[in-house]
Design brief:
The protein is α+β, with helices and mostly antiparallel strands. It folds into 2 domains: about 5-80, Arc Repressor Mutant, subunit A (Orthogonal Bundle), CATH 1.10.10.10; about 90-225, Winged helix-like DNA-binding domain superfamily/Winged helix DNA-binding domain (Arc Repressor Mutant, subunit A, Orthogonal Bundle). About 40% of the residues lie in helices and about 10% in strands. It is built from 10 helices and 4 strands, in the order αααββααααββααα. α5 (about 90-100) packs across α10. It is globular and about 60 Å long.
């Protein structure tokens, strides 16, 4: 197929009807023979530019490419779905933030940082939301599970990689960089989805960074909803 206009139309149609992000490899299979993935990426960038001034934009996330409404229009779209999105406790958000910035971590690591026990319910909630997963086990007695964030977590924050999370260096949270088993964590880095060394701000995930900054500093220790 040589008609670039038709190829772009096919790509647009696939992305508009897909219920999830599509990778360049998946989109290449729309054609027979499959197109080169580099060519697909170039066309996607052209489509993104062509839609830039419209109410719907093409964005790239961890799992691939997808169309979405521009963020400033979301409050209007929310009126179409009166049910409110689930709310998560501060403890759950702090736990998620610690995993995102320190992955891979064990439950014990999280408890050391927060200073309180982490309930099984919190871990299960984050797993059910498909934001975290077990990526390995620490080679210590009991072989505790190592947790890391998922591509779904990045997709939901509209991020391509963990490097787009706000940098911890901008926050008063140096305690998050101190874990009792740093050598072991260095050996476990291969389990993580991406490097925990973060440098590029992303406003979409500022709240997550704020939760990381609060973790272990002033989290209540008596209210059962927080641990």
């Amino acid at each position: 197929m040589d008609d670039l206009g038709e190829i772009k139309s096919i790509l647009e149609a696939a992305l508009l009807v897909a219920g999830e992000p599509l990778s360049a490899a998946q989109l290449a299979k729309l054609f027979d023979p499959p197109l080169e993935q580099d060519a697909i990426r170039r066309l996607l960038e052209e489509i993104r530019d062509a839609w830039a001034a419209r109410s719907v934009e093409l964005t790239q996330v961890a799992s691939g490419w997808r169309f979405r409404a521009k963020p400033e229009l979301q409050p209007y779209l929310d009126r179409l779905t009166p049910e409110k999105p689930p709310r998560y406790s501060r403890a759950a958000m702090e736990t998620l933030a610690i995993i995102a910035y320190q992955q891979p971590v064990t439950r014990g690591d999280i408890e050391s940082i927060r200073g309180v026990a982490v309930s099984t319910y919190i871990i299960k909630t984050l797993e059910d939301r498909q934001w975290i997963e077990v990526v390995g086990h620490r080679e210590t007695p009991g072989r505790p599970a190592l947790y890391a964030t998922t591509k779904q977590f990045l997709d939901d924050l509209n991020l391509r990689s963990l490097s787009e999370l706000p940098p911890l260096a901008q926050l008063d949270n140096s305690h998050l960089l101190e874990l009792p088993d740093a050598p072991a964590k260095a050996a476990e880095a291969e389990f993580a989805l991406a490097s925990p060394i973060l440098a590029t701000p992303a406003s979409a995930s500022a709240d997550l960074a704020a939760s990381a900054g609060d973790a272990g500093r002033d989290a209540p220790k008596s209210d059962p909803t927080f641990h």
